[in-house]
Recover the amino acids of this structure.
């Protein structure tokens, strides 16, 4: 292995401006056309119905239930609140198992609902909850529910996990924030377990700006959720522990409906971008694009790769730094794991639990690259070419970054 | 033109089989509609920035403008007033203590908010004249477990915020104001926003500033503002560092665009509200058994809410009066019923004996107000109230 003697010109080395003149974020960031936006909001202003389960929210819920193949789709302010509301509506108490390799909100939702998280490690090959470990943990630790997480446009194998929980009479529900539009064995993600919670955040394929949707086939649970959300949109009053004010506005619903019209195009674009990355990085050592796991249809909304420092020549953090210097706002999702973040690092329920070695190792290796509305094939080509450059000049970059520290 | 069905005899009332007075509902929600072109111009900004949330240009601008409006150092926006209150209560509560003192005659979800914050509501009484909690009604409830005092402004005029500040200072208890209905008001000439440790407001469509949904906090306490701006966004203090238990309570850019458009129009809106209030004053002047709650015009008022008291001279029970009005598509509502100390909850609250609240809670009615109500509607509502009063005997008999 040799390094070119000529000094490479790279932003991270401080000898040239960033490759991108403005920052490139990683999220989907899908927007409808301005014309469509204007038309929809003029209509809202004409109708003068702004929130409280208005006609657009009703329409969105009907369309989402149809697409997800569930009896109910309940739209809410955001997915975090959706998770909190679902935990509360399930009436569970005590401990709930979830993977630590997830967005922090999954774990936070449990604390807001008065529950104690118990972390179960992931399978490093799939990035998802390890079914074997889950079974072991369930057999020696009484818990009241499992919150499984679907990541990266893939799935945690919901049919298998549902069976494991069903055999033990424990409810399972899913954080499917990243899984809208995915299918497992021909079935849309959305109908597994007691309920699934989707994110309609701007960084997701279906954006309401902020927003969330809870899908379920359980009529009783659905009614509890509607009662917890607020009195509007309630079909039948039922007793709930406490309300949560989780309404979705007509503005959010309008945005989601507009993006839903474009869904097939957005999914196709994502797939193309994902494929381009995969092809262009195929021969680059030490960087592996993660294929959506356990689904037969993916939304391909995230480009996640795993870095192997010895073969790539740089560790993930240094590579992250080099990318950011080029105005590529790559993200270290999820680093650190939820179990290492306050207050979960000191929770009594976490004491004495197994070391979460797979999560700890993976959280040092993952990197999310831009994929979505803000990149095109030229940008992806530039990003991939830069990654090749970084690999080629890895020792010099590593030395430079070490000195800078 | 309004579609008003004149009533000639008791059986013309909708509740007795007649046609409803209004073709579409007249509600107690403000539903103010800002100028669409202004809203679209603001929207252009987040379109151009390509940012719909996570601290976009309009949320930043809204927070700056609201801080200026309330003459405070900081404004932190939230997805709703509900979660603004929950997070702020949790932050301000004295560690190791559980009780939050709040009026019972208030927003029906208030004890739920305290429960989300991990606190227990301890209800206090209100003053019969102002309908507000006072230093005198709060003081007896202060004890070793008092974590926080929640000063809630009533929907007409304000509570004695300076008096509550003195009480809270004396006992070294944090004081938070729910100022949801007092965006525009002054207290002794000083704008709401800077009283106590913090004040919380709502941007719900029914409120003075319509942001579709939303809420905000105002404070001069930098640590509080900084901390809550992290906690509303999962507790991230830097891109990959979570420092505390957070949640998602972020306001999005569309809602911020709406709130900014409303803020641009607020002085004009208050003028329109004043006209409606004047119309109520004229139309309701001589109806036996009805007292229109007056705004204290020595202070700045939003004139948004309209509340009437049904006195002993009013011949029909409030609950029945509301049924009659609702059938006419007048969505008048009880203010407030039941009061919180009379509600059963799945979480604990502290039982209290609150004679003034019990006396007041069956007496008041929130009347239609806001953007979708005009002066002709108000006259028609007043005529209907007179008609109801004149036909009370028949109505009571028919419904008995």
């Amino acid at each position: 292995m040799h390094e070119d003697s000529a000094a490479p010109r790279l932003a991270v080395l401080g000898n040239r401006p960033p490759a991108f003149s403005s920052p490139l974020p990683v999220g989907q960031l899908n927007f409808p056309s301005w014309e469509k936006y204007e038309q929809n909001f003029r209509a809202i202003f004409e109708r003068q119905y702004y929130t409280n389960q208005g006609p657009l929210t009703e329409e969105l819920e009907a369309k989402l239930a149809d697409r997800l193949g569930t009896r109910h789709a309940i739209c809410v302010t955001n997915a975090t609140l959706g998770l909190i509301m679902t935990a509360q509506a399930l009436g569970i108490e005590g401990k709930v198992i979830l993977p630590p390799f997830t967005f922090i909100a999954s774990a936070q939702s449990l604390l807001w609902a008065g529950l104690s998280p118990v972390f179960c490690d992931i399978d490093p090959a799939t990035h998802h909850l390890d079914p074997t470990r889950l079974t072991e943990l369930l057999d020696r630790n009484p818990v009241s529910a499992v919150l499984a997480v679907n990541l990266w446009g893939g799935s945690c194998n919901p049919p298998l996990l549902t069976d494991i929980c069903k055999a033990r009479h424990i409810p399972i529900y899913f954080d499917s924030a990243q899984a809208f539009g995915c299918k497992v064995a021909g079935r849309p993600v959305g109908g597994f377990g007691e309920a699934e919670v989707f994110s309609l955040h701007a960084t997701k394929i279906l954006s309401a700006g902020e927003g969330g949707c809870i899908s379920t086939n359980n009529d009783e649970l659905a009614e509890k959720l509607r009662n917890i959300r607020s009195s509007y949109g309630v079909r039948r009053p039922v007793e709930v522990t406490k309300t949560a004010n989780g309404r979705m506005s007509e503005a959010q619903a309008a945005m989601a409906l507009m993006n839903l019209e474009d869904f097939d195009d957005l999914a196709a674009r994502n797939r193309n971008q994902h494929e381009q990355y995969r092809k262009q990085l195929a021969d680059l050592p030490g960087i592996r694009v993660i294929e959506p796991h356990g689904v037969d249809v993916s939304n391909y909304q995230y480009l996640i790769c795993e870095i192997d420092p010895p073969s790539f020549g740089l560790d993930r953090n240094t590579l992250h730094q080099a990318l950011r210097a080029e105005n590529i706002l790559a993200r270290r999702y999820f680093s650190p794991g939820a179990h290492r973040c306050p207050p979960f690092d000191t929770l009594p329920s976490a004491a004495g639990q197994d070391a979460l070695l797979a999560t700890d190792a993976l959280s040092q290796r993952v990197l999310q690259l831009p994929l979505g509305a803000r990149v095109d094939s030229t940008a992806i080509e530039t990003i991939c070419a830069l990654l090749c450059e970084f690999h080629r000049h890895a020792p010099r970059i590593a030395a430079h970054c070490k000195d800078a520290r | 033109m309004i579609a008003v069905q004149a009533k000639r005899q008791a059986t013309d009332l909708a509740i007795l089989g007649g046609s409803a007075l209004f073709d579409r509902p007249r509600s107690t929600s403000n539903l103010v509609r800002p100028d669409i072109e202004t809203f679209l111009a603001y929207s252009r900004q987040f379109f151009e920035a390509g940012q719909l949330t996570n601290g976009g240009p309009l949320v930043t601008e809204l927070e700056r403008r609201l801080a200026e409006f309330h003459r405070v150092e900081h404004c932190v926006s939230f997805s709703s007033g509900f979660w603004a209150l929950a997070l702020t209560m949790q932050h301000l509560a004295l560690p190791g203590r559980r009780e939050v003192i709040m009026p019972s005659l208030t927003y029906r979800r208030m004890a739920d908010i305290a429960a989300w914050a991990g606190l227990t509501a301890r209800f206090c009484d209100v003053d019969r004249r102002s309908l507000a909690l006072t230093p005198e009604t709060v003081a007896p409830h202060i004890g070793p477990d008092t974590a926080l005092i929640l000063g809630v402004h009533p929907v007409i005029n304000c509570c004695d915020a300076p008096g509550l500040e003195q009480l809270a200072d004396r006992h070294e208890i944090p004081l938070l104001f729910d100022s949801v209905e007092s965006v525009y008001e002054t207290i002794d000439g000083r704008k709401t926003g800077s009283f106590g440790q913090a004040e919380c407001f709502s941007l719900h469509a029914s409120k003075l500033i319509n942001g579709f949904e939303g809420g905000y906090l105002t404070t001069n306490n930098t640590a509080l503002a900084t901390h809550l701006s992290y906690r509303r966004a999962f507790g991230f203090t830097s891109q990959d560092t979570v420092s505390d238990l957070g949640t998602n309570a972020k306001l999005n850019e569309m809602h911020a665009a709406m709130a900014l458009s409303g803020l641009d129009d607020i002085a004009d809106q208050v003028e329109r509200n004043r006209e409606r209030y004047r119309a109520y004053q004229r139309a309701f002047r001589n109806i036996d058994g009805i007292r229109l709650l007056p705004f204290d015009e020595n202070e700045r008022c939003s004139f948004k809410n309209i509340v009437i008291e049904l006195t002993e001279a009013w011949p029909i029970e409030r609950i029945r009066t509301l049924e009659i009005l609702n059938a006419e598509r007048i969505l008048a509502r009880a203010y407030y019923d039941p009061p919180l100390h009379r509600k059963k909850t799945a979480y604990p609250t502290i039982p209290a004996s609150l004679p003034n609240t019990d006396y007041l809670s069956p007496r008041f009615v929130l009347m239609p107000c806001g953007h979708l109500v005009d002066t002709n509607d108000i006259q028609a509502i007043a005529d209907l109230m007179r008609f109801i009063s004149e036909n009370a005997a028949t109505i009571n008999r028919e419904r008995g």
Observations:
- The first helix of chain B runs from residue 36 to 49.
- Chain B touches chain A through 48 residues (CB under 8 Å).
- Chain B is about 35% helix and 15% strand.
